């Protein structure tokens, strides 16, 4: 299966559903709500006056939130429908931002500049088959002294049973590709016109190794015992966060990684092929 056009059709179909969903609450965003997670704000730090690229930005709410905090932002996504919505929301809110339609591995040519921060939000890496090329692209986008910040769902959680999150059910080392036929998105609203998607699983060691091999210095990898959706039936909501019940053994549900560019000469990127998909 040529997964890239399949995934693009799937994500283009998601856009109108997501824009109108309670999950994304676009009206709340327009009124000033910041959808960035508290740990992201703390770990990224002050972005005022810094150039930030958001890869796989979907329709840009996180991107525009960094702009509201003072960053000079560029969002990139392979979904033209998502980028059109991002531009429309930016214009309506009067937020200065640049949005570009391109595959993530074409980002160096598509964006044509380097950045102080490359940010990638939740649910991005599962759409990429080759993390080595992704990490090389990130390194090539970073200005000397800049850094990558990645927040992701923890791959360990994906091997546990969906009902309780207590029993190992799936193979941690099964990288895929995994083909899914799902009528609904994670927002639970609407029916997709294009229901097929292709996804790839990546272990934490694979992610860290790809980033290090691209010449970036890993500053930290933090594992978190909370997530932001009902990943398992037993999770307990605590505001926007979801955690395992009090007293239950905890497992990592999310992780965050920060890695810096200490060199002015990031590795060259082989762009013979390309592949990407967006995130929220």
From TrEMBL:
SUPFAM superfamilies (UniProt xref): S-adenosyl-L-methionine-dependent methyltransferases (SSF53335)
Source organism, top-level taxon: Bacteria
Region spans: Disordered: 259-280
The keyword Transferase appears for this protein: yes
Domain Methyltransferase type: 55-148
Gene Ontology BP, a term: methylation
Keywords, sorted A to Z: Methyltransferase, Transferase
Listed GO MF terms: methyltransferase activity
One Pfam family cited in the UniProt record for this chain: Methyltransf_12
Name this protein carries in UniProt: Methyltransferase domain-containing protein
Annotated organism of origin: Nonomuraea jiangxiensis
